[in-house]
Amino acid sequence: KNHPHSHTPKKRGKKMTQGNRLHVQGVFLGYRRSNANQYENTALIKVDGVRSREDTPFYMGKRVAYVYKAKSKKNGSKVRVIWGRLVAAHGNSGTFRARFRNNLPPKAMGSQVRVMLYPSRV
Question: Rounded to a whole number, what is the largest CA-CA distance in the chain?
Answer without folding.
Answer: 59
